[in-house]
Amino acid sequence: MHRGFALRAYLGVSYLFALIAKPVLRRRLARGKEHPDRWPEKLGLGLAVRPEGRLIWLHAVGLGEVLSLRGLIARIGAAYPDICFLVTSTTAASADVFAKNAPDRTVHQFLPIDAPRYRKRFLDHFTPDLCVWVEQDLWPGFVSDLAKRGIPQCMIAARMNARSLKSHQRAASLYRDLYQAMALVTAQERITASNLERLGAKPRITGSLKPAAPALSTDPATGEALQNAVAGRFVWAVASAHPEDAAIAQEAHGLLRQTDPTALLIVAPRFAQAFADHPAPRWSKGDLPAPADPIWLCDTLGDLGLVYRAAQAALIGGTFNAIEGHNPWEAAALGCAIMHGPRTANFKQDYTDLDAAKAALPVFDAVETARALTSGLLGATARNATQCVAQSSASTDELATRLVQILEASDGR
Questions:
Q1: What separation in angstroms does the CA of 280 have from each of 258, 268, 287?
Q2: Quick one: which of 75, 280, 283, 400 has the fewest CB in 10 Å?
Q3: Are 10 and 115 in contact (CB under 8 A)?
Q4: Does residue 152 sit in the same domain as residue 43?
């Protein structure tokens, strides 16, 4: 691996990270931004037992990216029962939700801070046979240390828009060294591939991992209780909801109830605190929707599987504000018809493909949302989305095969 001036400068500065790591983590812990029991993992402490045999380490920054790995892991795991998996992430929410949905033979840890002593503890303990960086979260110290140890690395399902490219270009020589250390680089779509090429990478286009992820799980008893509570009612959802999405959904729900006074809207917040003053009954207090309740708040983390199983349709959150869209594939995997607002840049290719296949219903305001809910198109839209899931998953099959080939080629190192 080439280590130019920018990378060598970063590696030198990374020795200082350990001096501020504990105070920073404690402040974040006090603000609820770190896991209360597992934050020492970010110092390379309290690590889980290493699984026996070959180990593939996959790193993704947050909740959505971590959940997207499940389909890839399931494919490799089914074909190679001797391979185990280590998944790392950085956000507290990712750990709790992933635990409910983790594939077999998979361990989750928080990624240590990119300081030499923490990297060494982590790598000495887990000794991975292959490292897979997901989307664009690369840590130069880890990349450099893995290269020194002769452990192959890949970056997959990368996303990089024009704004991200501009920020990466400020450290172009650093990223050029990092990308050249990768045995494989893949991009979700053409624009990302072009941007990566400008930074010295040689990517393949393999699409998103998210369509291939298994359906989100839920507790069967809880699911049955909710189904019993809403039996005979038309149920739809807005998820993961931000205030702007919820406002559109609630206005549309008012219009819908003019013709169907029993209809129920489930609001599943992205951040529960943003809906702390909402008057609806809420799942965090143990409330199920009563027959007279027009809205129910499913304000607990990791319960989208429960929501999408109960709802016939979902307005995907983040599509009416600067978030620019959340993952539509989780709803599609559970047969829930997809609706979305006009702001989808965060999943531009996904929504473009779904719209072209008539597998999603674009809406621009509350009136159009209410009209879509009563259009008679929900069933066909959901079925088309199911077909898109199957078609999009094929690229993940190919990616799984390629990663194992890289792993096996390195076994004799």
A1: 19, 12, 10
A2: 280
A3: no
A4: yes
- pTM for the predicted model, two decimal places: 0.89
Is 22 inside a domain boundary? yes
Instruction: Give the span between the Cα atoms of 119 and 112, in whole angstroms.
Output: 7
DSSP for 64-116, written as a single string: HHHHHHHHHHHHHHHH-TTEEEEEEES-HHHHHHHHHHPPTTEEEEEPPPS-H
Residue 171: phi and psi, rounded to 5, are -130, 45
Strands 264-269 and 295-297: parallel
In-domain check, residue 49: yes
pLDDT tens digits along 356-396: 999 999 999 999 999 999 999 999 999 999 999 988 888 89
CA distances from 364 to 242, 248, 250, 300, 382 (A): 16, 9, 14, 28, 20
Higher per-residue confidence, 147 vs 349 = 147
Give dist(CA 353, CA 240) in Å, integer.
21
Asked if residue 281 belongs to a domain, the reply is: yes
Residue with tokens 């790193």: 59
